[in-house]
Amino acid sequence: MNNVKTQKTTDRSALGILKAGTDNLNTSRKPVHVAMFSGGASSAYIAYHIVQKYGKENCILFFTDTLWEDEDNYRFMDEVAEYIGMEITTRIDGRTPEEVFHDVRFLGNSRMAKCSEELKVRQTLVYLEELRDEQNLEPILYFGIGPHEQHRAINLQNFYEHNPLEAISTRFPMIETFKEDLDTKKIIRDEWKIALPRMYGLGFSHANCAGRCVRGGLGHYALLYNVWPDQYAEQEAMEERFREKFDKDVSILKRNSKAFTLKEYRELMDTHGVEKYLSEKDDTIPCVCSFS
Ligand code: SF4
Description:
The chain is α/β, with parallel strands linked by helices. The protein has 2 domains: 4-191, HUPs (Rossmann fold); 199-278, no CATH class. Helix content is 46%, strand content 14%. It has helices at residues 12-15, 41-54, 71-84, 97-104, 114-135, 150-162, 173-176, 184-191, 198-201, 218-227, 229-246, 262-272, 275-278; strands spanning 4-7, 23-26, 30-36, 59-65, 88-92, 137-142, 169-171, 253-255, 258-260. The strands form 3 sheets. A 5-stranded parallel β-sheet has the order 5-4-3-6-7, sandwiched between helices. The chain has a two-stranded antiparallel ribbon with strand order 1-2. The radius of gyration is 20 Å and the shape is globular. The chain binds iron/sulfur cluster. Iron/sulfur cluster is lined by residues 66, 68, 97, 108, 113, 115-116, 119-120, 208-209, 213-215, 287, 289.
């Protein structure tokens, strides 16, 4: 790669986990700081942080919409954007995760989720290349991942180093920059006076796709059934449509390494009580959709 400037960032080497000095800034392009705005509290705080540091004119709040988002996430994102004083740049593929599953004839599950690849990752990569080609800007990506999720930061760092046409720099201020463990939810709620997305209050660990994330495991879907049965019913119907149309015994969840449908799970929870399943371990791979 030509014109690569190596820039050391705070504390990466100190952590010894994230690679030090891997910012790949093409000096012929003007840097632009892109907050990967997910609808979660941490990514909202990171957006605020970079705008304070680099100025609105050098920042972008970027969001990819799967069309399954909870309506309260849009409310939260709009209020955060207004607080920061910036517009949100949104990219939409136009399909829902279900439409992607039908197109690829594969039902997303905890191990493989084409929805994430098509609706989030592809949209992001196309947008970042446009920034380079059409505006001569060099994107630097910021994620709201915290110290307890360093493995995800490493995965993202590797992904953006190897998958775009040229490597793209990634930064993780919650890990690299802030010395103290910030309570971003408290700051947003108490200082910014913005109500958090209602999904946090319902007990979900991330606020993407309105609780319908196909990467969620048994515990996640037990919670969904318990607190938001309508959404569970939507997802159960979605799964049944796929199974019928393609005449395949497939499912979002697995139990004892076999297909285990949401219908079967619901019947089991109805028989034995949903509480019994709330603490089921979610042996899932977190998706790139939840940067919060
Ligand atoms: S949050 Fe889950 S369901 Fe939604 S796009 Fe990402 S992987 Fe797919």
